[in-house]
Each structure stands twice: as C-alpha cells, then as structure tokens.
Amino acid sequence: PIPLVLDVDTGIDDAMAILLAALHPGLDLRAVTCAGGNAPLEDVVRNTLTVLEIAGRTDVPVGVGARRPLLEQPVDARHVHGSDGMGDLGLPAPRTQPDPRIAVELLRDEAERAYAQGRPLTLVPLAPMTNVALLARVHPDAFARLRRVVFMGGGADVSNATAAAEFNVFHDPEATALVLDACVEHDVPVTMYGLDVFYAPRVTREQSQALRDLGTPVATLAAGLTSFHQRVFQDGTMTVGDAGAVASLLVPQAVRTERRPVRVELAGTWTRGRTIVDRRDWTGDMEHDPHGPARAMVDVCLGVDGDALRDVWL
Ligand code: BDR
Ligand code: CA
C-alpha cells in the first residue's frame, strides 16, 4: 500500500477523501493534518476526527494546523459545505482528540519515518496549502524526503472561487507558490489535480441510494455526503471532489497529465490566485517570453476517466 498523508479542510469532499484513504487496502494512511479553509479550523478538526472515528481509524493521528492563510484573511465556503462544514448531517461530536503535535511537526515526523522505512511518503493536500508551505520552510529536509505531492487545487481552464481562481489556491496563493517552488528546490515531483478534472468523477442518485441501503455507519456517512443538496448537479449527480485526487493514486491510468510550467498569480486585480498553466509549444513563443522560464514544472491533470475514479471511491 502507498504510504500517504492527507492535508484537509474537511469539508464534504475532504470527508469522502478521508474515507477512501482510511479504508482502501491499496493505501496506508499515516496521518491527517488540518487547515482552515472550507470551514474554520475548529470545525475542520472536529469533522476530521468524526470521519476517522466512523471509519474505525482512530489510530490515525490528526494534526491541528494553520488557522488562517499566510497573508490573506480566512474566507470559508460554508455556503458550499453547510454550516458545520460537512453537510449538516447531524453527526456526533468525536470522542477522540487531535495529536499533541501540530501539523508541521506531524508532517515532518511522517515524512522522515516513511523515508527511513524506504517507502517515502506521498503528500496529498486537499486544502489551502498553508501547512505544506510551513513544512517546506520550517523542515525543508523533511520536505525533501517526500516521494511526491499530489494536490487538489487550481485549474488550467476552470475556476470556482472567482472567475479566475480555484478556492484552495485563492485562499492562500502565497502558500501554493511557495510549495511549487519548494518542489523544484528539493526535486519533489508535483501533480496538480485541479478543476479541469475535479468535477468529472460523479456519484449518481442511484449509487448514493445504494450506499444508503447498505446501512453500515461508513456507507450511511458516504450516502449523506453524496446527497448534500447544495452540491448536487441538475442531473442529480454529485462529484466526489477531493476524493478523486486520492483515487487517482490507485488508478493512475485514469488520469491524463501533461508536464507544464505553472505559475501562481500573486498580484492581479481580478486574477489573484489563478494558476497559469503554460500550454504553448516548447519551440515557439515560450522561448521568447520576457518573463523568462517558469521554475515549477507540474504534472497537470487535463483529462480523466471520471467513472473509473468514481468506481474506486464507491
Ligand atoms: C476545493 O475547495 C473546497 O471547497 C473543496 O474541498 C476542494 O478541496 C475545490 O475548489
Ligand atoms: Ca478540500
């Protein structure tokens, strides 16, 4: 199984991702770290602990991380995720506590432990990347030991938070830029699972009902998450969102990537937080770009077999 750590802002689809990472035999979930994003940090931590408890994985340590972005003020997305950040499903409060280590310390420990075991860690950020940026700055040696980073964020052509930017990157653009730069500096491969593919893996109403009919605690939670009305498309389907990024680790052939230079817009009146994916020909205009070459080369997900990823999640 692939050793991995999720960094989350749980979050309906973060919860779906945690379920998959916690329960799939092909994955070895070592820890989950939390950042403010979809909901304020306290809600994110509570939701994360609750999901792990329902999944029977109270052995997975949960690290409390950044309350707010590096520079920006926090802006949550409760209009998308419900007032508790997780679909107002009326879930019980968790009985477990977060790990005493804060997120960057837990990330450092797990990166070093996996490296020492000869199976370096895959880090999967599904939230604003504040914690990951701090890891890169506070413990660069541990960051350098990562096997790869696969993050949900950005988009080559699609946006949601603003007309130009995706939520996770818009929330903390400096953190995203810093992480991409750290991946170059420490030679850590980075994959961007962005909005170009994010909406493709979708659960149908019938599939959601089939989960509900199973009646187990995990399936009941999964069914609740897939039927939160604010997230359901007009055709009755619902994206598994962040869980698709986790599923892509298990069926890499379901995702088409291109290695492209990526920059994060840190200025811009209307474009702050946009990921600028350079899709020009290598031999053409790119060479004469007055900005010079972009540092970060990112495996950008541009196509996906949504049903294949959805089926892995189901
Ligand atoms: C991202 O923002 C959050 O609302 C989701 O959990 C996902 O990580 C999509 O833009
Ligand atoms: Ca998320």
TrEMBL record:
<dbReference type="InterPro" id="IPR001910">
    <property type="entry name" value="Inosine/uridine_hydrolase_dom"/>
</dbReference>
<protein>
    <submittedName>
        <fullName>Nucleoside hydrolase</fullName>
    </submittedName>
</protein>
<keyword id="KW-0326">Glycosidase</keyword>
<dbReference type="InterPro" id="IPR023186">
    <property type="entry name" value="IUNH"/>
</dbReference>
<dbReference type="Pfam" id="PF01156">
    <property type="entry name" value="IU_nuc_hydro"/>
</dbReference>
<keyword id="KW-0378">Hydrolase</keyword>
<dbReference type="InterPro" id="IPR036452">
    <property type="entry name" value="Ribo_hydro-like"/>
</dbReference>
<feature type="domain" description="Inosine/uridine-preferring nucleoside hydrolase">
    <location>
        <begin position="4"/>
        <end position="310"/>
    </location>
</feature>
<dbReference type="GO" id="GO:0016787">
    <property type="term" value="F:hydrolase activity"/>
</dbReference>
